[in-house]
Design brief:
Elements (H helix, E strand, L loop, with lengths): L5 E5 L3 H11 L6 E4 L2 H10 L2 E7 L7 H10 L8 E5 L5 H10 L3 E4 L4 H18 L44
Parallel strand pairs: 1-2, 1-3, 3-4, 4-5
C-alpha cells in the first residue's frame, strides 16, 4: 500500500461532497471525489483507496450497493466503508449495513471531529493491513516503533511462596 492512498468521498449532492471534503481536508490525506455509485466503484477498482465514505441514498447504484460490491471483490474487500445518510435512523438500512460489514453508519448532520477520528483510524488500519507504514499527520507524529519500557515486576522465584497459616479455631457466631 502506497503512502498516497486516498480517501474516497461519494455523494450525489455536490454541496454535501464539498462539506465532506472540508471536514476531512485538515487530515492531509489525498481525497478522491465521486458523485455516483458507478464512479465510486470505478475509483475503487483502479486501486489506491484506503477508506470510502459513501452516501447511502443515491440514484442508480446506492451506497449500500457499493458497499456490497466492494465486500465481494477480492481486490476491494479490505477497504473500510463508512456509510452516511441524511434520511434519519432507519433500522432496516442500519441492519443491512451491519450485515454488509461496514465500519460505521452515520446520520447527518455529521460531527466533524468524530468523522475525522474515524477516517484517521481506518486510514491507518488500512495501511497496516496492506503492510505499509501508515502516513502520520498532525500533532502526533510518533516514531513507527515505540521503545519498550523496562518491566517493574520482579521475576518470580520458587522461594517467593507465601504461606498462610491455617486457623484451628472456629469463627465466632
Amino acid at each position: 500500500m502506497s503512502t498516497d492512498m486516498k480517501v474516497l468521498l461519494v455523494d450525489d449532492h455536490e454541496d454535501n461532497l464539498f462539506a465532506l471534503e472540508s471536514i476531512l481536508a485538515p487530515l492531509g490525506y489525498p481525497l478522491e471525489l465521486a458523485t455516483s455509485g458507478d464512479a465510486a466503484l470505478k475509483a475503487a477498482l483502479h486501486g489506491g483507496i484506503a477508506v470510502a465514505v459513501l452516501d447511502v441514498v443515491m440514484p442508480g447504484v446506492s451506497g449500500l450497493d457499493v458497499a456490497g460490491y466492494l465486500g465481494r471483490l477480492a481486490q476491494t474487500q479490505l477497504i473500510p466503508v463508512i456509510l452516511v445518510t441524511g434520511m434519519g435512523h432507519d433500522a432496516a438500512t442500519a441492519d443491512q449495513a451491519l450485515r454488509l460489514g461496514v465500519a460505521d453508519y452515520l446520520i447527518k448532520p455529521l460531527d466533524p471531529w468524530a468523522l475525522r477520528i474515524k477516517v484517521q483510524y481506518l486510514y491507518r488500519t488500512s495501511a497496516l493491513l496492506a503492510g505499509a507504514p501508515p502516513r502520520q499527520r498532525g500533532p502526533r507524529n510518533h516514531p513507527p516503533e515505540q521503545p519498550q519500557l523496562p518491566s517493574r515486576r520482579r521475576p518470580s522465584r520458587p522461594t517467593d511462596v507465601v504461606r498462610v497459616p491455617r486457623r484451628t479455631e472456629e469463627p465466632p457466631r
